[in-house]
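Researcher:
Attend to token order:
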Amino acid sequence: MTGYELKKFFDLAVSHFWSADHTQIYRTLNRLEQDGLISSKQELQTKRPNRKRYSLTEAGLTELTEWLNEDQEPLTYRDAFLIQIFFGKTLSVKRLQEMINTQQEAHKKRSETFDGLREVIRETAHDDLEAVLESLTLDFGVMFERTYIEWLEQAQATLQALSEES
């Protein structure tokens, strides 16, 4: 898999719980290669720049398997928007509502993307463990987005009621 293909994979398959930008992907690929966990082969291209195709080494597979077997700490959730809301008393209610509307649109779009991914998984999935696990993680993303949208709607209604009282 190339770095570009890996970025596409992240965007399509796991963006509902893990994001990575191009810089992070290539930096990590270089480090993994230096550590002997992946190897690369240069692919010559005539009309495009040459590219590297990466593959997991035996040491990399061992390291991955060990990591997959580790228990993980619960997620520490960080959300800059919630910090803005928490400290938003210096903003007008109208501005807060605009910010919430922006978030609602973004989360609705993401939710629609996940619904599309669900259709792709249904069309291409086999009745095997891999498909079940992919569906489970996607279900998490769908449920997270729905909950966030519901909270945004509640926040919008609360602020609307507050502005009507004043």
